[in-house]
Amino acid sequence: MPAKNSQKDYLENGYYHLYNRGVEKRKIFQDEQDYSVFLSYLKEYLTPKDTEKLNFQLENPSLSSREKDKILRLLKMNNFYNEIDLLCYCLMPNHFHFELHQHSLDSIDNFMNSLGTRYTLYFNKKYKRVGSLYQGVYKAVLVKSENQLLHLSRYIHQQSLISKPASKGEALRSWKQKQPSSLPEYLGLRNTSWIKTNEILKYLDKIKANSLLSYDAFVKGNDDFEAIKEIIIEN
């Protein structure tokens, strides 16, 4: 029997909670470089590719063969700008969460397969390993309402604030470690063009009873489990 949420209900213009973790629950992010590389791939996939500029650079006769190869790789690289809108994310040591919007039926599948393959190649080369990095196919569940969309963002961002030991032998002082997430974008502390905050923040503005309620206060509140129980993907 297929694992729960491994069979996807894809819709055009659908919103989804996506999740995957390391095989045997192993760490897929072992240091700051790993987080940085993964995020750099997201940025490259979700920002527009300036093919005209790249082709112009390619015509420069003074280019070295190394520089030329780099430009050719960039031209061939997959790009999902206007296909995928990433609303929020959280990267944990052995798994990650995305909340995103796809524009066509196959956008998510193409995006996740490309991202997963590319990061696995990087990880295996760096750590001198072979084989699958992830525990099976990524999980995806359809978000069915604006209310779920909002409360899912809180659930995902709260994961980045959970204090956990990175390993059993580490001292207590190192347990309180915040994980990389899109929460700073929602708090106005960072501006990242490829994180789309408007939809969720506009819905929060529309429903909040107290005009002083901020996203910060919303995240610090208790989860509405009934609102999101259908779209939580088990670890």
From TrEMBL:
<protein>
    <recommendedName>
        <fullName>Transposase IS200-like domain-containing protein</fullName>
    </recommendedName>
</protein>
<dbReference type="InterPro" id="IPR002686">
    <property type="entry name" value="Transposase_17"/>
</dbReference>
<dbReference type="GO" id="GO:0003677">
    <property type="term" value="F:DNA binding"/>
</dbReference>
<dbReference type="InterPro" id="IPR036515">
    <property type="entry name" value="Transposase_17_sf"/>
</dbReference>
<dbReference type="GO" id="GO:0006313">
    <property type="term" value="P:DNA transposition"/>
</dbReference>
<dbReference type="GO" id="GO:0004803">
    <property type="term" value="F:transposase activity"/>
</dbReference>
<dbReference type="Pfam" id="PF01797">
    <property type="entry name" value="Y1_Tnp"/>
</dbReference>
<feature type="domain" description="Transposase IS200-like">
    <location>
        <begin position="11"/>
        <end position="159"/>
    </location>
</feature>
